[in-house]
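Sequence in, structure out. First:
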Amino acid sequence: MKKKESISSACNRCRTRKTKCSILVAPHSSSLDPHQPSKAPVCRFCHERGLTCEWDLLAGVTTNEDLRHKVRETTRQLDDMSVLVNAMQFGSDQMSSLLLAKLRVGVPVSNLAQSVRTGTADQYRIQLYHKSEYH
């Protein structure tokens, strides 16, 4: 008898039912980064019943790995925002106005925080950019 493929997480339906989840159709992805979108696998239970197999996690990522990634991303965002708040609170009025104007026109927080960290934020005047240039 062929051994079922073991997986480290379960689809939403199997998790709700609290049953084992085995991959019937493996994902097709050329990306090595587990946090890049890929086609989700389909489990045997969902496939046999013609149900949509939905996954909260990306293929090949355990719940703990996904949570660690989310914590790192949230920590990075918090650090960026802290850098901006400190620069606006303790910097010059001109610096605060510059940062606020750039936030309002859609410059990403991460870009502004990086410019504050590298000391380049006060080296240029306010240039109003169209939002699409940053997204």
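Second:
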Amino acid sequence: MKKSALLAAMLAMMLVALAPAFAQTAPPEGVQSFEVLERHHTEGTVLYPQTPPVGGPHNAVLQNCGFYDTPVGNENAVHSLEHGVVWITYHPDLPADQVEVLRALASGRTHVLVSPYPDLPAWVVASAWGEQLWLEDAYDPRLEQFVNYFEQGPQNLEPGAPCSGGTGEPL
């Protein structure tokens, strides 16, 4: 009898531990997908077809992941996207409470980059390589769904690649 109870308890613990890995089986509603054919290193400024960019030619130096309160270079951030990073950009006039939500979302994650972005087409935009989601605010539950699905997700071109050792000092 004790063995049965112990076995049941162990099975329940395993299910609780594994459930998050299977909870997110698809990207959130509203994600736009883009075909990105080029991914070579380049110097200088790149004119990207999306704002913010979702991939393409990029700087040889990646942008270190974390939270920034100043804009980062597109070409460095795109290199980070190639490593399976989710880049969350926010309008510079986003209310402070929402900026703090984004800061908290990046905290403790190895492959999330957050920065303001001038002339952003929405209040918050989440981007991964070839994927993008426009949001009206940082409280939209689809933002966390996007991060959970795409951070080191199926679009990752370089599994296991770090998001450190590059440029920038996140706060």
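Remark: The two ends are 54 Å apart (CA to CA).
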